[in-house]
């Protein structure tokens, strides 16, 4: 009997989504032979509204190296939707109905923490779901790493490398604001790889006085430039309880304003923003996304639904979706990389 597998990508895009889609598809054609893959468009938006199409085998060729997602994505998930009739629609019921209509044997949801929470609810409603963890933030609980993250680290490191030479030439402080939402993984890794002198993370509220002191000390020791990698979710001491400040708020510019009250050094800000999510996946992410895609197919074959693929050490494995839902993997205070940073004199803005 023909196996019907649905696939969607949801939440912010990242490099490696197409590699994962391809991994699931190619492995499924091998394992099941008689298989139809249904591409659901615009993430959960397509599942809610019934926008999907059967894909040709050929569509999964030539996409390994392409950034973004051929299925497109959106941030729509479990919100209630007001219809023309004025009534609110139960989106989870609508999604289950479309799953039935598509006659799916299972649905592969490729996304971040929000995607897995919604997928968990669908699973509870009796749908067969397998999750794949993507995000440049690397903040999904239960997996050492997500695909997309390493590509973003590479891009962010390149930005830091490039501002380094101009900071040196002009004897400036260069602040680079990096993505990561409420987790500091991207800023921490890229900061260390890019030789940042100060790294500010959401997990460690910073003191502006400590940041100024670290920079002044460098100047006193004859180093006439400094590089600061600041995570977009970083907060200063005393600012921690404030609610999220929205898409147009920039901690980088805020930091520059606060810092220039404390130091007398020319300061500039760079915000690479969505540049960090664009372009081709790096080889590591191509391999990881392919491995995870293949593992998703194995879970489908074994009928082990309700699971999210994960990597632990060298092993590709999976967690129960309900264990992943609603959690965020932030940097623990005993993370070895924090110790490494401190050992080489990086300031985390601590008092
Ligand atoms: O989750 C990935 C991410 O790029 C975060 O790092 C960032 O906070 C957010 O998405 C940006 O969201 P949007 O694409 O909706 O602007």
Brief overview:
The protein is of the alpha/beta class. It has helices at residues 17-32, 44-49, 91-101, 113-124, 149-170, 185-193, 208-220, 251-260, 283-301, 321-324, 336-343, and strands at residues 3-9, 35-40, 52-54, 81-82, 88-89, 106-111, 129-133, 173-178, 198-200, 226-231, 267-270, 307-312, 315-320. It has 2 domains: 3-147 and 281-324, 3-Layer(aba) Sandwich (Rossmann fold); 152-276, Phosphofructokinase domain (Rossmann fold).
Q: Could you characterize what this model shows?
A:
The structure is a single chain. With 351 residues, the chain is α/β, with parallel strands linked by helices. It has 2 domains: 189 residues, Rossmann fold (3-Layer(aba) Sandwich), CATH 3.40.50.450; 125 residues, 3-Layer(aba) Sandwich (Rossmann fold), CATH 3.40.50. It has 11 helices and 13 strands. The strands form 3 sheets. A 7-stranded mixed beta sheet has the order 3-2-1-6-7-12-13, with helices on both faces. Strands 9-10-8-11 form a 4-stranded parallel beta sheet, sandwiched between helices. Strands 4-5 form a two-stranded antiparallel sheet. Helix 1 links the parallel strand 1 and strand 2. The relative contact order is 0.17. The structure holds 6-O-phosphono-beta-D-fructofuranose. The site of 6-O-phosphono-beta-D-fructofuranose has 11 residues, from loops.
């Amino acid at each position: 009997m023909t196996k019907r597998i649905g696939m969607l990508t949801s939440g912010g895009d990242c490099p490696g989504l197409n590699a994962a889609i391809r991994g699931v598809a190619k492995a499924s054609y091998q394992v099941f032979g008689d298989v139809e893959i249904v591409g659901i468009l615009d993430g959960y938006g397509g599942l809610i509204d019934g926008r999907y199409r059967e894909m040709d085998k050929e569509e999964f060729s030539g996409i390994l190296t392409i950034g973004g997602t051929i299925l497109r994505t959106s941030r729509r998930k479990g919100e209630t939707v007001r219809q023309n009739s004025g009534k609110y629609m139960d989106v989870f019921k609508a999604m289950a109905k479309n799953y039935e209509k598509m006659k799916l044997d299972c649905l592969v949801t490729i996304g971040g923490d929000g995607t897995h929470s919604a997928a968990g609810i669908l699973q509870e409603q009796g749908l067969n779901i397998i999750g794949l963890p993507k995000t440049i933030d690397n903040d999904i609980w239960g997996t050492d790493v997500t695909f997309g993250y390493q590509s973003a680290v590479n891009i962010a490191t390149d930005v830091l490398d490039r501002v380094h030479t101009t900071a040196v030439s002009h004897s400036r402080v260069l602040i680079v604001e990096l993505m990561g939402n409420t987790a500091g993984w991207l800023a921490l890794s890229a900061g260390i790889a890019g030789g940042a002198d100060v790294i500010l993370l959401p997990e460690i509220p910073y003191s502006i006085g400590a940041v100024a002191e670290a920079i002044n000390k460098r100047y006193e020791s004859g180093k006439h430039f400094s590089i600061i990698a600041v995570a977009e979710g970083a907060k200063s001491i005393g600012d921690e309880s404030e609610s999220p400040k929205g898409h147009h708020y920039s901690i980088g510019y805020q930091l520059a304003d606060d810092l220039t009250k404390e130091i007398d050094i020319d300061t500039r800000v760079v915000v690479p923003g969505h540049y960090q999510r664009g372009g081709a996946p790096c080889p590591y992410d191509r391999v990881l996304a392919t491995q995870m895609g293949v593992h998703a197919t194995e879970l489908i074959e074994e009928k082990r639904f309700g699971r999210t693929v994960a990597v632990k050490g060298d092993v590709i494995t999976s967690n129960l979706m309900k264990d992943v839902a609603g959690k965020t993997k932030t940097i623990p205070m005993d993370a070895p990389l924090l110790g490494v940073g401190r050992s080489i004199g990086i300031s985390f803005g601590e008092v």
